[in-house]
Design goal:
The protein has about 150 residues and is an alpha+beta fold. The protein has two domains: about 5-50; about 75-145, Gyrase A, domain 2 (2-Layer Sandwich). Helices cover about 45% and strands about 20% of the residues. It is built from six helices and six strands; from the N terminus they run αααββαββαββα. It has helices spanning about 5-15, 20-30, 40-45, 75-80, 100-110, 135-145; strands at about 50-55, 60-65, 80-90, 90-95, 115-120, 125-130. The strands form two sheets. The protein has a four-stranded antiparallel β-sheet with strand order 3-4-6-5. Strands 1-2 form a two-stranded antiparallel ribbon. A hairpin with a 5-residue loop joins strand 1 (about 50-55) and strand 2. Helix 4 runs antiparallel to helix 5 and helix 4 (about 75-80) crosses helix 6 (about 135-145). It is elongated, with a radius of gyration of 17 Å. The N and C termini lie far apart (about 50 Å).
Length: about 150
C-alpha cells in the first residue's frame, strides 16, 4: 500500500473513531487489512500533523488539523492545561493537565520561538530544550504569563 492511501485511511479512522493511542490506531488499520510498523505509524502521525487533544473526559484523542477551526494557539491552551514549569540549564519541564502535553507542545512548536530548539511531550509533561540557558527564565515567565493572564 502506498503512503498516500495509508495516510487517507489513517485520517478516515481518526475522524470516525475515538483513537487514544498509536497501538489502537495500528489495530484499527490492521482490522481494515493494513499492516504497519510502529515506526511507520509514528512517522505518518507526525507527517499528518495529528495531535492528541484532551476530550471532555480528559482522555487524549488523536485529531487532525482539519478538525480544528484554526490551529490552537498557545495562549488559548495554556490557561486550561498548564500546571507548572521548572527548569535547569537548557531544559525546561512544563507540567500540564493529563492528556494535554502533546497539544501544548505542538502549539509551542508552531510558535517557532527562536530560543527553543525543540520539545518532547508525554501525556502530562513537556521537555523544552533551549538553545541557550540564559533564555530559561524568560521562556518560563512567558509561559506562566500566558497560562495566568491578568
Amino acid at each position: 500500500m502506498n503512503k498516500r492511501v495509508r495516510h487517507s485511511k489513517i485520517l478516515e479512522l481518526v475522524r470516525s473513531h475515538r483513537v487514544t493511542s498509536q497501538e489502537g490506531l495500528r489495530s484499527l488499520l490492521s482490522d481494515e487489512g493494513t499492516e504497519v510498523t510502529q515506526a511507520t505509524l509514528s512517522r505518518d502521525i507526525r507527517e499528518l500533523r495529528l495531535v492528541k487533544a484532551p476530550s471532555a473526559d480528559g482522555t487524549g484523542v488523536y485529531s487532525s488539523p482539519e478538525e480544528w477551526d484554526s490551529t490552537p494557539s498557545l495562549e488559548s491552551l495554556l490557561p486550561a492545561l498548564f500546571q507548572s514549569a521548572d527548569g535547569v540549564d537548557h531544559l525546561l519541564v512544563v507540567r500540564t493537565m493529563k492528556g494535554g502535553a502533546q497539544t501544548v507542545a505542538a502549539a509551542l512548536d508552531w510558535e517557532e520561538w527562536p530560543e527553543v530548539l525543540g520539545t518532547l511531550a508525554g501525556d502530562d509533561t513537556i521537555l523544552i530544550i533551549l538553545r541557550n540557558p540564559a533564555a530559561l527564565a524568560d521562556i518560563r515567565t512567558r509561559i506562566e504569563k500566558m497560562a495566568r493572564p491578568a
